[in-house]
Amino acid sequence: MDSRGRAFNNIYIKRLWKSLKYEDIYLKDYQSVREVILGIEEYFNFYNFKRPHQALNYKTPAELYFTAYC
C-alpha cells in the first residue's frame, strides 16, 4: 500500500469484483449458496485461463505466469 487513505490501494481488487459481478453474478440466477460458490469458481477459472486481458497484451494471466515462472 502506498499510504493511508490512498485511492489507488485497492483499485485492482475493485476492478476484479466489478468484472465478477457484471460478467457472472448479475447474469445468472443463482438459487443457492452452493451454486454461487461453484459459479464463482468457474468464473475465476475462465478469468485466469481463457479470458484475454487488454492490459496483458491480450494474453491470459495464466499464460504470463507460466511462461515467466515455470
Outline the secondary-structure elements.
Layout (H helix, E strand, L loop, with lengths): L10 H15 L7 H17 L11 H9 L1
List keywords for this structure.
70 residues, globular, mainly alpha
Explain what the structure shows.
The protein has 70 residues and is mainly α. It has one domain. Helices cover 59% and strands 0% of the residues. The chain contains three helices and no strands. The protein has helices at residues 11-25, 33-49, 61-69. The longest helix is centred in the middle third of the chain and has 17 residues, at 33-49. The relative contact order is 0.08. The mean pLDDT is 90.
Taking the sheet with the most strands, its summary is: none
**Oligomeric status:** single chain
* Percent helix range: 55-70%
How many helices in DSSP terms? Answer: 3
Strand tally, please? Answer: 0
The helix-strand sequence is: HHH
Give the termini distance in whole angstroms.
28 Å
Percent of residues in β-strands: under 5%
Quick summary:
This protein is mainly α. The chain has helices spanning 11-25, 33-49, 61-69.
